[in-house]
Amino acid sequence: MRAVQKHPTVITLEPLFKFTHKRMCQTPREKLVHLCDQSRGPSLLSRIVHDTTPVLAGKSLDRMNRQMLQQLLPLIDDMGNYETIDLNAWLRHAITIVSTNVTYGNLNPFQNRHVEDTFWELERNVALLLTNIVPWLIAPKTWKARKCLCAAFKDYFDLTGYEDGSDLLAMRYRSFLRAGLTHKEIAYAEVPLIVGLLTNTVPAAFWVHFELFSRPKLLEEIRGEVEQNALDIAPDGTHIIDLGYLRDDCPLLLSMYQEVLRIRTTMVTIRFVTQDVVLADNYFLRSGAMLFMPAKQLGRHQSAWGTSADEFDGRRFLRSTTTIDDNGDKKKGPRRTGGFMAFGVSPTICPGRHFSTSEILALVAMIALRYDIAPVDRLWHAPLRVNSATTSNMGPVEGRFPVTVKKRQKYEGKPWQFKTTDGKGQFGLAVG
Ligand code: HEM
């Protein structure tokens, strides 16, 4: 992995952008040539991807986080009105509607439930659209779902819906418009972004709830940590969870979250070799070759994680670990990060990681304090994962996962709120 990272301009992701826009977004040939032109430096497509990082950080991220918290709250309040829910469907709907409202604003096409369902129909087999074997014949439902989703997004752009969307959307819309794309073409170009926005966050949130609620001791510890360090009770009795404190003062919560990603990721990083190159003085790679780096295996390698590599350890990502050396002295070891590729490999690190981490941790922290959740048969058996051509790296769950929801007596009847402090949206996440 380190050897590959030493050649970022030779071993790159660039050809994948072209491939995706050709197959997934159906960008017309002449416009694709323009978007991918590298004769005057990085292509427009790679610049758009590059420009995603600043619009998912700083003030833009603060605004997204504020809106996200505001919209999550009524959904979490409502959870208490049901004795049982399908946890998989509940999290999927909550994250879909909140993330897309924050990104697309008041005219968000996902406010139409049919569009939401259409997107998830598309997502099941979206990778089939990337094949070159008559996708409309081998995946007609997926083909139709994309058409329907993109028609809704074309209407959204025609109605100037982008005017109160996020900075992320504004940046993409302006860039594609300047490159000469029509509203219909921009609607198709939005598909990879929606895929990136939702398809990893939803299953990641599911596994975080699954791994935490199935471990009573860890759950108690994390409840205690959130109560002590991130919960404020206002004079009027409102219980307020502060996202800034979840980030800065709940290291066990953050460690547990990263451990879930480490254990559950199915990511295979793909890179393209654009010139002949020798890696680590040993391995010759010919120009045109594709390189696959399996995050799943590297994320469990004993050389990075020690003998407990295959086990779930909620404390693994705590900043430092104290061990006793042979002389009986305490020794602080650094936090281990090598081999953690759930958010990619430097220099291509997921720009949405701070937003999705805020969303997932806010959800799980408040749900953990307010509710007890358990499978209806009381047995925490991991559900099956989707076995189709999804592009998700987080093992999306197949079918229903019914759970009972009980309000915790300690907080019954209390009003709740979220709070966030601007400038505190970025988490100290490990990156490979
Ligand atoms: C838990 C949730 C998420 C996980 C596990 C995740 C994972 C990843 C990974 C592994 C990559 C690198 C892909 C590669 O190297 O080929 C990536 C890239 C990317 N992600 Fe995420 N992601 C998440 C959430 C998000 C969100 C919420 C957004 C959008 C707001 C997003 C937008 C992107 C974009 C635009 C890229 C491409 C970056 C580039 O090519 O430089 N992701 N993500």
Give the averaged pLDDT, no decimals.
Answer: 91
Bound small molecules, by name, code or SMILES, are: protoporphyrin IX containing FE
Rounded to an integer, what's the Rg over CA atoms? 22 Å
* Percent strand: 5-15%
Number of distinct helices: 19
Instruction: Identify low-pLDDT runs.
Output: none
- Summing up helix and strand content along with how strands pair, one would put the structural category as alpha+beta
Shape, per Cα inertia axes: globular
Q: How much helix, percentage-wise, in residues?
A: 40-55%
Number of strands: 15
The profile of the biggest β sheet is: 3 strands, antiparallel
Strand order of the largest sheet: 1-5-8
N-to-C span: 9 Å
Organism: Penicillium hordei
Pfam families: p450 (PF00067)
GO biological process, one term: mycotoxin biosynthetic process
InterPro entries: CYP450_monoxygenase_sec-met, Cyt_P450, Cyt_P450_E_grp-IV, Cyt_P450_sf
